[in-house]
Amino acid sequence: MTDGTGAGSGARVRPRLTVLSGPSGVGKSSVLAELRRMGPDVHFSVSVTTRKPRPGEVDGVHYHFVDRAEFDKMVDNGELLEHAEFAGNCYGTPRAPVLAALASGLPSLLEIELQGARQVRAAMPEAQLVMLAPPSWEDLVGRLTGRGTEDPAVVARRLEIAREELAAEPEFDQVVVNDDVKSAATRLLHLVVGPAPDAR
Question: Taking the first listed entry, what is the main subcellular location of this protein, grouped into a coarse class (predicted)?
Answer without folding.
Answer: cytoplasm
